[in-house]
Amino acid sequence: MKSNSGSYIQLKGIDFTFDEMKESRERNGLLRIGVAIGEGGKKRQCNSRCPYCFEEKETIIKKFSLKQINSIVKEAKSLGAKTIVIIGFGEPLIPSRLEETFLAIEIINKSKLIPILFTNGLSMNKEIASKLHELNTSIVTKLNSFNPIVQDYLTRSKNSLERMKGSIKILMDTGFNKTSPTRLGLETPIFFDNSNELPRIAKFCMKNNIYPYFEALKFTGEIRKNPHLYLNREKVRKSLESVMSLYPNIFGTNGIAYIPQGRCCLQHYYGSLFITPNGIFPCSGVNYSLGNIRNTKLREALNSEIIHKLRNLHIHLQGKCKDCKHAKDNNKNAPLCFGGCRGNTFNLTGNLYDEDPLCWRN
Ligand code: SF4
Ligand code: SF4
Predict the structure, then answer these.
(1) pLDDT in tens, 196-238
(2) Which of 269, 301, 312, 331 is least surrounded by CB atoms within 10 angstroms?
(3) Residue 260, ligand 1, Cβ within 6 A
(4) CA 149 → CA 155, 158, 191, 250, distances in Å?
(5) Residue 337 Cα: closest atom of ligand 2
(6) Buried b (16+ CB within 10 A) or exposed e, 299-328
(7) Ligand 2 binding pocket, CB closer than 6 Å
């Protein structure tokens, strides 16, 4: 087994130490934010039609101007952010959006913050990869399956497996996986159709110093229309245990309590907000706006009661999460789990502090 940080692979930009997380929490600051660039909703531009896309497409969402992105990045930096994740809307590397994507990344890079870009990889080429590399970007590209039929079904796009494999090769040839921590991640949402392939994908990541970003789906957006793709918690447990029997430390030295997003999600612990032209949200999965960037400062959002409670979840968790040993906050190490996924909990129960109904550990 090969890894770049002791026993497990970390991605540059989210490789925070526990001291950094604790310090950010104590001063009620941030370590990262997510920003949606491009137009959302009905005007979303994408080269794929994933049947599990997390975006709600009913409304039209106008995009941020570069001036607005600049001011968001500036304020996030003043609150301690080290990383800006570009997540949504649509695919940022299609030709019609390339220029604005690079302009946004240049703003982040000039501010000496780390850009992380999520892409489906379908439009990747050598020129794009080399420019992203120069701009200090970490990339999370996608691979759902090594089966071409399953992969095409999950993107609704032709020849997608070969194109995604091509993207991974170009990114590796450009050197994204040659650093420590690595700058290359592979995002694999777990579905009914690919759940038995996780060990193979994990092996590929471990061999090539690629951050394995397995993700249990959020019950939001298109997945509501395609519930047959959604795995129940027993199936998630089975597929993840098959990975951990091969690589016991793949998700961290102490094993993993929950896997909403690569490994246990600590975003609410260390401080992170998701910002779109429609609002400032606690994270990309919790569809509860804390205000709009046009009239609300990020600092005000951080000072809200909701964020305060989410940062101190161990006090407010209910149900099974309340007394769960994995969620204990001992101030010496990061909790193994911090209430699972609040996005899923909110979407499925309407109560932000309820037990996570999809926890596969308890
Ligand atoms: S709580 Fe869930 S939706 Fe929110 S950032 Fe964590 S994994 Fe994502
Ligand atoms: S019961 Fe809650 S806190 Fe415990 S492992 Fe499950 S999701 Fe995490």
Answers:
(1) 899 999 999 999 999 999 887 777 777 778 877 777 778 888 8
(2) 331
(3) yes
(4) 10, 9, 14, 28
(5) 8
(6) eebbeeeebebbbebbeebebbbeebebbe
(7) 257-258, 320-321, 324, 326-327, 337, 339-340, 355-356, 359, 361-362
